[in-house]
Amino acid sequence: MSWMVIFVSLLLINPSYSRYDDDEQPKIFIVFVSKSHKPSIFNTHHDWYTATLQSLPPSSSSSYHSHRPCREIVYTYDHAIHGFAARLTHSQVSHLRSLPGFVSIIPDSVHQLQLHTTHSPQFLGLNDGFGIWPTSNYGEDVIIGVLDSGIWPKHPSFNDSGLPPVPKRWKGTCEEGTDFQETSCNRKVIGARAFYKGLEEDLGHRVDKDGTQSRSPLDTYGHGTHCAGTAAGSVVQKAGSHNYAYGEAKGMATRARIASYKMHWGHVGGSLSDILAAGDQAAADEIDVLSMSVDDGGIKELRDAFALLTFGLMQKGIFVSAAAGNDGPDPKTIKNLTPWVLTAGASTMDRELGADVILDDGQVIPGVSPFFADAIVTGYSEIYYGDNSNSQGCLGGSLSSTEVAGKIVVCDSTGLNSAWDQGTVVKSAGGVGMIVIGNKPAAQLLTSESRLSVPAVEVSDTYGSKILDYIRRRRLPTATINIQGTVIGSSLFPSPKVAAFSGRGPNKITPEILKPDIIAPGVNILAARTGFGAGTTDEFEVKSGTSMACPHMSGLAALLRSVYPEWSPAAIKSALMTTAYNVDNSGKYITDIASGKFSTPFQQGSGHVDPNKALNPGLVYDITPSDYEAFLCWMGYDATEISVFLKDKKVDCDAIRVSSSPGDLNYPSFSVVFESGKTGKMKHKRVLTNVGSAADAVYKVKIRSRTSSVKISVSPTKLVFTSNKKSLPYEITFESAPGTTETEAFGSIEWYDGEHVVTSPIAFSWATTTTPATTSLISSA
Question: For the Inhibitor I9 domain, which residue ranges apply (predicted)?
Answer without folding.
Answer: 30-113
